[in-house]
Request: fold
Amino acid sequence: MKILVVGGGGREHAIVMKLAESPKVDALYCAPGNGGIAKYAQCFPVKATDIDGMVKLAKELAVDLVFVAPDDPLVLGMADAMQAEGFMTFGPKKNAAILEGSKVFSKELMQKYHIPTAEYRVFDDPKAAEAYLKDKNEYPTVIKADGLALGKGVVIAQNEKEAFDAIASIMEDKIFGESGSQIVIEEFLTGPEVSVLSFTDGKTVKPMVSSMDHKRALDGDQGLNTGGMGTVAPNPYYTADIAQQCMDTIFLPTIRAMQEEGRPFTGCLYFGLMLTPKGPKVIEYNCRFGDPETQVVLPLLDTDLVDIMLAIWNGTLDQLDIRWKNGCAACVVMASGGYPKKYVTGLPISGLDENGQTANCFVYHAGTKLDDETFLTAGGRVLGVTATGPRLTNALSHAYEAAEKISFEKLHKRSDIGLRALKALAEKE
Reply:
């Protein structure tokens, strides 16, 4: 099979590396790709959101399947455009990707079908939003831009000033463009967070190994929200009992709700969950593999990813036994100094071999480019150093050991990835 992967970050690198393991894959392409991906797949400079350009490329390459990995092309309808030209695709159609494309849509769906989530109100007028907050006067409170915002469209406001500032920057200054035309104001939920990616063909849902993201830029979960500074899998808070509860109250009801709405969801559905004192609740849905969750989940997958994609395409996921490796995985993100705000790019990276890798680990490239044979930084999140091991302590020590050997100017990484998970494991014992 010839496969084209759309996207160019760490998640796409993890997908390419997993597909490269399959004996069924004859050729791998990626667009736009990056410096690290270029060592495992042929890359083409087509933007992930350029639907016409990507369809043209898929035709030229005569691929068998197109894997649309990022959220924005899915929300724009790339899967629909590919299918209209006869290509097999992995990723939901536009009318299903709205689950991530509009927070208002997803909240209303959950309300209609009684899927547990935080209480909320929707506003399209900043003044009305301010009046509601004044009246309610409960903090912290959560303010979300309706549309896509690169994982940064959520503000947890600790007081009225922070809340009003967030409303002004989202709705008036339009820092996320039209994504901020509407906002959702939600109650603040407490409890451990869990990310569960799942495979679904629109009828059956098969969850992957759970994971724990570390969103804040600085140690101790301080600093600004980022796209994610590191992950571990599995998440120790996600027990077998909670998994069953999530399946019964969240996963299957969501899949059935989308079916009911005439928007069957196929591909990877990501459930961002909060395990509250009143049971699991949905914080958000994503219509694709998460980043950096993919970087710890896929290394633990033991079933051929191509077989899973074909089962989803054919609607036979219920007949496939998806197997996972025993053990744990940990990913440490190496970011440009200043991320998620301003940062410098084009800095040479040392400590990688000719394939952009290092011994005993996977190094997933998120923001790199290849200049001759030198890897340069080309984004906020540069690399995700991932290791697996029989226990989480092994995976973490291998990942940090490898990360120590890699360097570039102004490098920033957190030194406490996985500490929360280790604490939870210690409490269990």
